[in-house]
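RECORD TYPE: inverse folding
INPUT: C-alpha cells
STRUCTURE:
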C-alpha cells in the first residue's frame, strides 16, 4: 500500500482489519505511471480489496464488500475516457429509451458480484446508478449505449 500511495500521491485511509496481502505484479512490458496504478488497483480488486478516492488528497482501501459504504466521487467521464482497469467508481446514467428497472437484469451479469447493489434503478427519474470496479462499470455503460 505504501508503493500505491506514492504512485497516486494521496494519503491512505484504511481500516484496521484490512487483510495483510502480498501482491506480486510481474511487469513484462513498459508501463506508464497511470498504467501501473491501474494494474495495482486491478490486482487489489482480484483480492477483493477496493480503492475509493476521497477528494483530491485521500484514498480509502477497504474490502470490496464494504466499498459501497464509502462516499466516493461520482465519475462523469465519457465512457471512452474510462480506463480498462481500476478502482471502484460510481456513475449515474440518465436513460432516454427504457425504464431503469428493465435494464437491471441485462446489466447485472456484468457486475463483479463483490459490490452490494451494483445496479440501482431509479424509475421515477429515469436514472440508473452503477457502482463497481471501473472495468465492469465501463462494460455496463457500453451495453447501455
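DESIGNED SEQUENCE:
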Amino acid at each position: 500500500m505504501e508503493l500505491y500511495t506514492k504512485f497516486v500521491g494521496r494519503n491512505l485511509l484504511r481500516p484496521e482489519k484490512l487483510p495483510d496481502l502480498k501482491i506480486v505484479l510481474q511487469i513484462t512490458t513498459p508501463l506508464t505511471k497511470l498504467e501501473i496504478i491501474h494494474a495495482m488497483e486491478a490486482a487489489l480488486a482480484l483480492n477483493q480489496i477496493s480503492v475509493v478516492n476521497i477528494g483530491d488528497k485521500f484514498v480509502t482501501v477497504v474490502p470490496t464488500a464494504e466499498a459501497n459504504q464509502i462516499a466516493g466521487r461520482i465519475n462523469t467521464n465519457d465512457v471512452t475516457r474510462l480506463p480498462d482497469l481500476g478502482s471502484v467508481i460510481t456513475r449515474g446514467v440518465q436513460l432516454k429509451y427504457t425504464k431503469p428497472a428493465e435494464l437491471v437484469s441485462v446489466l447485472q451479469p456484468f457486475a463483479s458480484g463483490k459490490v452490494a447493489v451494483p445496479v440501482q434503478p431509479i424509475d421515477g427519474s429515469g436514472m440508473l446508478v452503477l457502482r463497481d470496479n471501473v472495468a465492469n462499470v465501463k462494460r455496463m455503460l457500453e451495453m447501455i449505449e
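NOTES: DSSP finds four helices and six strands in the chain.
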